[in-house]
Amino acid sequence: MPTPYQTHIGSFTRKTTFFWAAVGATVGLANLWQFPYLASLHGGGLFILLYLGCLLLVTLPLMVTEAVIGRHARHGIVLAMDGLIRSAKRSRLWMAVGRLSVVSAFFVLSFTAVFGAIALAYVFFGATSKFSGVDQASATGILAGLVSDPREFRVFMGWHAFFLIMVLWVSGQGVVGGLERAYRIVVPATLVLLMALFGLAAWYGKIDAASSKIIEMHPQDLTWASLSAALFHAFYTLGLGMGVWAVLGAYTTPHTQLKRSILAVVLMDTLVAILAGLMIFAMATQSNVFDGERGFSLLFISLPVALSELASSQFIITAVFLVVVMIVWSTSLALLEPVVGWFREWTAAPRGLSVILVGLAVWLAGLVSLFSFNLWAEYLVGGATVFRWLELLTGGLMIPLVAVLIAFFTGWGLTRNLSKTMLGKTPGIFGAIWFWVMRLVLPLAVVYIGIHYTASSLGSLCDNGSEAFWCEPAPEMVEREGGGEASESVGAGESGSNPDKSTDETGELLPAEQAPENKPAQPQLGPESAPKDDDILYHSV
């Protein structure tokens, strides 16, 4: 095994590659299925301004910190932390920060690949006109047949393996021949295709109604919950706490203006979220299928229904989900890199072998999430599937913990000279803001995020009927059950479920024990057997 700092994991050859790679890493599914819902619920343009404020004041300093740690050491997060610990003469226990971030990236990648498999299947479904003339029930049946039918899990496994092979093949080509080339082609192509779809939405849809929801100011909708939602989305949408920014920082060329590039990435991520929101709202408003939805019900049910009504819907649906695949693929490629880089530095194995071994481990871990939607859907622990607990472990505990520890280490564990050296040339006011945000603001904000995330997730299990020990039935729930009224599931945090809509109208199949007796036989979504809005709150995808 090599001694520390004798390995070299690679480097980009062009200074602008960091920007394209970082955009690919940060623009994820949350831009499509979470941001439009939050903006429409929390004041439109005022929420966007609030979100930008949270990005610039809270999460941007952490992004810069992770990136400069990698650039300073020219290694992944584990060896980079090792070097800082040695330089600052701190306890070796701080090494847990780097290792925990790699584990977080591994777990998030394992279920991100499952989502990518669904999007990839939808590309082919769209190309073969499977969504032609579908309604809410039919679209739900298509999603259920792919994801939650125990008889068809091998088909789902095939899509999952297909998507992972796409990711692993590019990563195996190396940093320059694989990552750099792919990001410089795929990310701009994704943005161009997204702009084309936005133009199509403006032509066919109701762009004025979409602008009213997303961009116009609605002060009456702005509350303290809006600040919480903006803070949550700003933290979870940028791939923080998983070593991604450290390894991308390690790959930068000496001429890359790192801090300016990160600021540009933040602004680009926000712009993409706004464009995606306008596109989705314009299309959905056209067919009146969108009503406060988010997550899977928005992306994989309501959106295909809306697009199926357009002329040449076969090509439009294919293009839309091709964009989704490219977005998830870019994110997955970025999540794989910290794990592959760590494995190479730990074992000195060649890149090809490292990618194969790590990819095999990711595939096996992904099967846990995949089976949670079908074969293992009925095996619940505390009212949740294995996937739900894995998502909660990473999003509610591991990622916030890594962020807090990095903030404490850089804010309190390093000397001011070492911090300034690592940060590089920067305006004095930015350096001062960065220093105090890392010392005080960020730890408090992230602790709040982690606690609130966990409490909301556990609370949503209680809302969905869990009898876990932390669930205590609310008095109004007891009254409703005693009066024979069916209790409706409400979302965790700011889920925004519409209490006026029945389960069938939302496009989600009823649990098996609640399904009508005379309904035609088809795959049924049991409790927690398929991704729902409350299953995926703010995870880093």
Characterize this entry briefly:
The protein has 541 residues and is mainly alpha-helical. The chain contains 20 helices and no strands.
Q: Can you tell me about this structure?
A:
It is a single chain. By secondary structure, the chain is mainly α. It is 68% helix and 0% strand. It has helices at 17-26, 29-33, 35-41, 45-73, 77-88, 95-127, 136-147, 153-172, 175-204, 207-214, 224-236, 244-251, 258-287, 295-307, 313-347, 351-372, 386-413, 416-423, 428-463, 475-482. The longest helix has 36 residues, at 428-463. 55% of the residues are buried. The model is unreliable at 1-6, 474-531 and 533-541 (pLDDT under 50). InterPro entries: Na/ntran_symport, YocR/YhdH-like. Residues 478-541 are annotated as: Disordered. This is Sodium-dependent transporter.
Poorly predicted regions: 1-6, 474-531, 533-541
Strand content: under 5%
Overall mean confidence score, pLDDT = 82
Main beta sheet, described?
none
Number of helices: 20
Shape type: globular
Quantity of strands, as a count:
0
- Provide the structure class: mainly alpha
Rg, nearest Å: 23 Å
Could you give the order of the helices and strands?
A: HHHHHHHHHHHHHHHHHHHH
Helix content: 55-70%
First CA to last CA: what distance?
Answer: 34 Å
Protein name: Sodium-dependent transporter
Keywords: Membrane, Transmembrane, Transmembrane helix
Pfam families: SNF
InterPro entries: Na/ntran_symport, YocR/YhdH-like
Keywords:
541 residues, disordered C terminus, transmembrane helix, transmembrane
What's the helix and strand layout?
Blueprint: H1 17-26, H2 29-33, H3 35-41, H4 45-73, H5 77-88, H6 95-127, H7 136-147, H8 153-172, H9 175-204, H10 207-214, H11 224-236, H12 244-251, H13 258-287, H14 295-307, H15 313-347, H16 351-372, H17 386-413, H18 416-423, H19 428-463, H20 475-482
Helix pairs in contact: 1-9, 1-12, 1-13, 1-15, 3-13, 4-5, 4-11, 4-12, 4-13, 4-19, 5-6, 6-8, 6-15, 6-16, 6-17, 7-14, 8-9, 8-15, 8-16, 9-13, 9-15, 10-13, 11-19, 12-15, 13-14, 15-16, 16-17, 17-19
Transmembrane segments: 18-39, 45-64, 96-125, 153-170, 182-204, 224-250, 262-283, 319-343, 355-377, 389-409, 429-451
Keywords: Membrane, Transmembrane, Transmembrane helix
Biased composition (Low complexity): 486-497
